[in-house]
Specification:
By secondary structure, the chain is of the alpha+beta class. Helix content is 41%, strand content 26%. It has one domain: Beta-Lactamase (2-Layer Sandwich), CATH 3.30.450. A 5-stranded antiparallel sheet has the order 2-1-5-4-3, with helices on both faces. Helix 1 runs antiparallel to helix 3. It starts with 5 loop residues before the first helix and ends with a helix. 32% of the residues are buried.
Length: 135
């Protein structure tokens, strides 16, 4: 049986998300510090000058998720399930995966948001199982 590398499994999970939710422009598994663990589509995190590229999305999503967690704790609202920000050109969603990783998803404006978020939650759960296997 061939060895399955964690990076390949993460990339496959993100690719499946894009297949199930075509309105996803880009997605990344990120650390709480805003570093990219895995990203899709390939090369999305390579252009440091693109403000909507993977590295920028990862950094900003980590900041937003950190502030959301603090706000929810301060207001006694429990653990964060997701952060959703909608703008005139699209939506960004951040879903926690583990205590130190999250899934950041950049979504096109005209997306069917419920279906897209459902696919993102499934991807986050799958990614969590991949990351838990490495402990």
């Amino acid at each position: 049986m061939p060895i399955q590398y964690r990076s390949d499994a993460l990339r496959r999970s993100l690719q499946t998300l894009h297949h199930q939710a075509p309105a996803v422009r880009g997605s990344a598994v990120i650390t709480q510090d805003g570093l990219v663990i895995a990203a899709f589509p390939p090369g999305w995190d390579e252009n440091i000058h693109d403000p909507t590229g993977g590295d920028h999305v990862a950094a900003l999503a980590a900041v937003v998720a950190g502030q959301a967690e603090k706000t929810l704790a301060r207001l006694n609202q429990g653990q964060m399930e997701r952060v959703l920000m909608e703008g005139e050109h699209g939506t960004i969603a951040v879903l926690p995966i583990t205590h130190d990783a999250a899934l950041a998803v950049l979504i096109l404006k005209d997306a069917k948001l419920g279906l897209t978020l459902h696919a993102a939650r499934r991807a986050a759960d799958e990614i969590q199982s991949v990351l838990d296997k490495t402990k």
